[in-house]
Amino acid sequence: MGLLRVAAVAGTASAVSGRVQRNQQQKYAAQDAAAAQSAAPAAAPAASDEDPMAQVQKLAELHKQGILTDEEFAAAKAKALGI
Length: 83
Hints:
mainly alpha
């Protein structure tokens, strides 16, 4: 009985650890992409040509997925809306 409990706890810990690692990788990938976009001046006009509401919707999805923090979402949203 104790061995089953240890196996269940270990399995749960492994699953949670894997999910945390995937979320961190997604967040870092998004940060790298944002840094690359801000570093490339040619890419900036293309982003401003996009509908601001579409940009905000994309940002909201990233925020919902946990890729963007509240602060990152607020800053990116303000930038997209020109505030």
